[in-house]
Predict the structure.
Amino acid sequence: MELRSRKISSKIIGVDINIENQAKALSLNLVDEIGNIQEACKISDLVIVAVPIDKSENVLITVLDVIPDKTVVIDVGSTKKNICQIAEKHPKRSQFVAAHPIAGTEFSGPESAHLGLFEDKVNIVCDPEKSDTAMLDKMIQLFSHLGMNTIYMNAGDHDKHIAYVSHISHISSFALGLTVLEIEKNRENIYQMAGGGFESTVRLAKSSADMWTPIFVHNADNILVALQAYIDNLNKFKRVIEGRKDEEINSLIIQANKISKALKET
């Protein structure tokens, strides 16, 4: 939608194995036509791989195998180490840019596209030194046109950091959703009593299982470290609440309040 609205692309070809998604993308004017992946890649200047990460590695190889020498390929998945390792072995590695625009919502499918999604958001490019300089610059300009600020990181560090700031947030939201559904059997109570805090915290629990399951599997090592640290902090709260230790509860909350300063600095 952004590519069209900002007149960045003269023609957009959509590729999707889901027939329903194909029809929706056409009806919403997100793409000009639906194409076959090999044929579409042969005539495109830019190919964006945006599929669940358990499929992205095979899709990337398929794309790199057929693209012309001047075509740039971007993967926008949430983990980068595995796909960068796969790309490393391909003779057209320099035409690949491993990117992660931090600009998603809890919704998925063609209907979830909306204007302004990328404005003032951060885009991470991993292992930029392995991409052709001219192609990399072209992609940075593209992200800039979308309103994004690009930073650089190696793929391993990306996956470690994103486990803490994104993946653990989704697990927390999924776990909260499960907890409330298990404990509060009266769904009407959930609807009537849920305030803004609950709604904002559990929002991510609406996210696609098909997208997030492979993310958790692919980034399991980093997520398990983050998850253990999270569980340790939950247990801290459990212990001090069990002991009715108001000063220690207060101290933990004040420590947690410091996250607001960290967010303002980014």
In short: The beta strands are 13-14, 33-34, 46-49, 72-75, 96-101, 122-126, 149-153. The longest strand covers residues 96-101. Residues 159-265 form a domain with the 6-phosphogluconate dehydrogenase C-terminal fold fold (CATH 1.10.3660.10). The chain has a mean pLDDT of 89.
